[in-house]
Structure formats: C-alpha cells, structure tokens
From TrEMBL:
Residues 93-217 form the HD domain. This is Unannotated protein. Pfam families: HD_5 (PF13487). InterPro entries: Cyclic_di-GMP/3'3'-cGAMP_PDE (IPR052020), HD/PDEase_dom (IPR003607), HD_domain (IPR006674), HD_GYP_dom (IPR037522), HDIG_dom (IPR006675). Residues 71-268 form the HD-GYP domain.
Length: 279
C-alpha cells in the first residue's frame, strides 16, 4: 500500500512538473505575443507621431510661405507708393512708372525673355525712379537747365534708389534695386552712375532705359513740352548703338510699329539701320 501511494505521489509530481512546464511555455508564448503586439503598437504609434509631425511641419511651412508672401506684397506695395510719391512731384498724373513697367515687360517679351522674369520686370521697372524722393524740389522741378552741381545731385537718385531697395530677400525687389541703379547707364559707357557699357550693363537696365526715355520724351514736364511719337521714335533710333543697345531698340521698334503702323516712315528714314526679322 505504501508502495502504491509512493508511486501515485511520483506520478502526481510528474504531472505537476509537466503542467508547470506547459504553463511556463504558455506564459513565454503569451509574453512573446504580447511583446510582438506591443512592438507593433509602438511602431504604429511612432509612425502616427511621425505623420502628425510631418503634417504639422507641412502646415507650418505653408503658413510661413503664406506669411512671407504677404510680407513681400506689403513690401512691394510700400515701395510702389514711395515710387509714385516721387513721380507725383515730377509729373501731373504719376502714371509714368506704370507705363514704363508695361513697356519694359513688352520689350522683354519681344526679346523672348522668360515670361516670369518679364512679369517681374513689369513691377520692378515701376521702382526705377524711387530714389528721386531724395532730390530737392528746386532741382527736380527746375524749369531751366540744371547746373553741373545740380546734375550731380540729380544723378544720385540711381544710387539712392538702389540703397532704398537693397537688403530685401524678395527677388522682385532685388530686381528693382538693379533697375534703379542701372537705368541711366548707356550702351557706349557714357552713362551714370558707374559708366558701364555694353553687356556689362544688366539686361534689365538696358531694357528699362529705352522704355523710360521714350515715355519721358512723350510726356509733358514743367521743364519741357511733350514730344510727338514721331520725334521720340526718331530720337530712340538715332541713339541706337550709342545710348541704347541695338537689339533692345529693334524690339522696341517692332512694338511701336504694331501699335502705330503709320510710323513706318520714321523707321524707313533711317535706311542704314539693319532690318530685324520679327515672328
């Protein structure tokens, strides 16, 4: 009897040991599944947090871009108002800057410049005379010829304009600064403020100077009458290769003749000027 009881206890102990082993294996398997699920959960959580961060970053970038664009627009508007203020002192309407911008863009398009750049030039060219805010009325509005000293002061409107527009990160304003500085340079190197010549003059300056001179000639000032279209066109053609870049003048002529075909006679009078085909 004692022997049977001993065998029963051994069997019971063996079964308990097997149960404990199975339980350990079950617990280990359960722990592994739990850990696997936990890792999967943690991975998904990290992915979701990364996506949230990406969305927030994208939203922030969009917000920054939006605010930057708004600030650039405010900056441009402020400079345009200042340019118009300078222009109102010199003309009756203050629309000279707008006409110069439009004609400059049209010339740039005729020269097959990049369309986006042409539109930037349209706005930047309006700032070409912004430096005139620093020129005294006694000089700016003088009805007679300027003295040498007065002309030296007048010439500073180019450098002052560039200084006013300098330091901006806005490409359009940066272009405006280049225009302001260079729109009185001449193809033959006799212009100001730096005496640049030929292609050393930035392209925008070579374009705007033609538009500026033509509109100034055909506009009335306190110190001059308005020239006729014929007179102004004749002057521009005569200054081709001296004051103005030939290619820019040719593009300008093509535009003028589309607007005013009757001015062909003025062009034909300059028979030595090589013809430029236009598509």
């Amino acid at each position: 009897m004692y022997r049977e009881l001993s065998r029963f206890e051994e069997a019971l102990n063996h079964q308990e040991a097997r149960f404990d082993l199975h339980q350990d294996l079950f617990n280990q398997g359960t722990d592994l599944r739990i850990k696997t699920l936990q890792i999967a959960h943690d991975t998904e959580h990290v992915r979701q947090q990364a996506e949230i961060l990406r969305l927030r970053t994208t939203e922030l970038e969009a917000l920054v871009r939006g605010r930057t664009h708004e600030l650039e627009e405010y900056q441009l508007e402020a400079f345009q108002r200042l340019a118009v203020l300078a222009e109102f002192r010199d003309t009756d309407t203050g629309e000279h800057t707008i006409r110069v911008g439009d004609l400059s863009a049209e010339i740039a398009h005729e020269l097959h410049e990049d369309s986006e750049w042409c539109e930037q030039l349209r706005m930047a060219a309006r700032l070409h005379d912004i430096g005139k805010v620093s020129v005294p009325d006694a000089i700016l509005l003088k009805p007679g010829p300027l003295t040498t000293e007065e002309f030296e002061i007048m010439k500073t409107h180019t450098t002052v304009g560039a200084q006013i527009l300098s330091g901006s990160t806005y490409p359009l304003i940066q272009l405006g600064a280049i225009v302001a500085l260079n729109h009185h340079e001449r193809w033959d190197g006799t212009g100001y403020p730096s005496g640049l010549s030929g292609v050393n003059i930035p392209r925008c300056g070579r374009i705007v100077t033609v538009a500026d001179v033509f509109d100034a000639l055909t506009s009335e000032r306190v110190y001059k009458r308005a020239w006729s279209q014929e007179e102004a066109l004749d002057f521009i053609i005569s200054a081709r290769g001296h004051q103005f870049e030939p290619e820019v003048v040719d593009a300008f002529i093509a535009i003028i003749l589309r607007r005013h075909p009757h001015l062909r006679a003025v062009v034909d009078a300059h028979s030595t000027m090589p013809a430029r085909p236009h598509g």
